[in-house]
Amino acid sequence: MPKVCVEIPQHILDDLNEHIGDDKKFVNLSDAIRTACRKMLDMMDEIDRRHGRIKPKKGEE
Fold first, then answer.
1. Quick one: pLDDT at residue 39?
2. Quick one: DSSP state of residue 19?
């Protein structure tokens, strides 16, 4: 898996860290960032579908 280096404002990192660890939503910071990226991409795909920029998935026509 490729590694990416990004700069993240401290207040966002602090917020993420509150949700990382045992008995919390994410296992580690990488997991939290991957999940956020997937969710954002899903939202962008939905917006593109609504605006006719991409074809609907099979069965959604």
1. 98
2. T
